[in-house]
Amino acid sequence: MELITGENISILIFFAGFSGLMLKRNVIKSIICIGIMQAAIIIFFLSSGLSPDNVPPIDATGLQNVADPLPQALMITDIVIGIGVTAMALSLFIHMYHQFGTSDWEKAFKLRKDSEE
Amino acid sequence: MNNILVYLVLFPILTGSFLGLLKCNNTRKRKILTIVTIFIQSLLLIGSLYVLTYVKDFGTTAQNIGNWPDFIGITLKADIYAVSFVLMSISLFTFAIIYQLTENDIESRVFSLLIILEGLIIGIFLSNDLFNIFVLIEVATIVISLLIMYKKDTISTYDGMLYLLVNIAAMSLFLFGIGMLYKMTGVIDLTGLKDVLSVFPDKKALIVPYGLMLTAVCLKSAVLPLFSWLPHAHATPSAPSAISAVLSGIYVKSGIYLFLRLQNVFSDVFDTYYLFLILGFVTAVAGFMLAVSQKDIKLILAYHTISQIGMIMMGLSMNSESAYLGAVYHIINHAFFKSCLFLSAGLIISAYKSRNVYKIKGVFKNMPITATACVMAILGITGAPLFNGSISKYWISYGAKGGWAEYALILINIGTMISFIKYSGMLTGNYDSTLVKISKKRSVPVLILSVMCLLGGILSEPIISFLFNVQMSPNLLDYLEKSLLFFVSLGIAYLLYRYAISKVNLYKIASRLELGFNGICISMGVFFLVMLLYIRIFAM
Fold this sequence. Notes:
The complex is a heterodimer. By secondary structure, chain A is an all-alpha fold. Chain A is 72% helix and 0% strand. Chain A is built from 4 helices and no strands. Chain B has 22 helices and 2 strands.
């Protein structure tokens, strides 16, 4: 059994990203971790429909042995969404930083509580 | 049917995007905005009613976009539950939009985002393809976080950021689950998935994707350890009340709806009904405990949504036909009374310029129409006889007969009453300072909503048969017994509140239970692991 496959690697990367979400208190790092998770998902999808003897469907004759196109179509959508989400999160972060003056979740949490009182 | 399902999703999204271009700086443009939004809403209402009658006559209808064969392209599928949810969300959006139109200074951006969100929610209800659901939810998350931090003040920026990142992290788990499922089964269409899973040989391999997807769905529908984001998002001080009503009344239901669909697909493989019965109960109890301990009226309502979600989840997981239908009917009822409560709370807040439940007094004297609507919605949510809540709670407890869940439901209802006894404390009493004048027409949509709460109770039989094609009439004797139970538990709740709960300072304890971003992520990880363990040991 082969250990270093696309799937195993992507599971590792995914949970590495998730542990970053659990442990890191910096907002920017959280956004980066979500990006890492997204990259892992893309690797997983692409490698799930792929075998080493697949050929790219470039010329009209080579359509017999191509990889499963559905995951690729899904991942193009996911890449677009990922860009949108990251851009959105970063721009929201700018507003949050203007309001709180910190990029630390815990500090912002405390400041929010104080301003509520 | 020629393509009407597609237009039902696309039409609000497209028109909503163009609506944002309209500037409403004078009365004429304001009129145009009013006419355009009402026009869009009435078209959608007519469309969804047409689909409903079609589905009732000809059964479930599906439409493959781009004419791909089944299970490859995106499919929109309208079954009886999906269509009634669509009808519910369109009518509630109409009320929220009318309410928002009567606001003093309005911006077309809010309407643009609201109508886009409406299209996305309709899409979530109709879509039969897991990846399509993921895309729609992701876009809806972005739209909602824009709506939450619409005013960009200190509190709302934090709330919007927390909402965005927590939900996107959860949806990443969901997408990873989809990927694993696709790798094993080769389909992501819900109908196709159900067919494949019923004969799938390797059950053990399905545990991880199922756990991942359930974790995401439970976060979306705010089950016990994963609800810390919800009160922030639904009760941000600066967000307009129409948005809180839409989020708490309708959007949260899309999580529950996803749960319903997912459990349906996986019901042949894993049996997790008992786990969600318990989780629903714990969620409901925690929800009302936290609701009682708040002093901000919007927060009381937001925490109360969690408690009702727990109850709906219990109803869905009882493995009984009538409880299931009761829970689905309760989803619709909850949408009505919770939006009514949020909208009336919005009126009260803008009149009193305060959100503190102890400082607001004498709403009945100063704003009689709003207070009446508020009382009717409270009667609905506590399940008073003749109101809509009583019917759905009757069916849920009918399905729970004989088990511990029957008593659990009574306990939850007492908790609901306690939190609303606290809430209705602001209706009576005297208030000396002057109020901001609120024009009468603003309370009209709220009043109509509250009347619908009453109609949902009195006309429950025709409504249920209209929406779900089932004849269900409550047994009169049982119903009277339940009504008696209502008054007994109301008495108990009053005594409990008066002599025990109002004496303890719960606010301090409750505010310590609140989780930050990392806390929510850790609880998400723990929830996932517990889920895996439970499924491995008990549910196979």
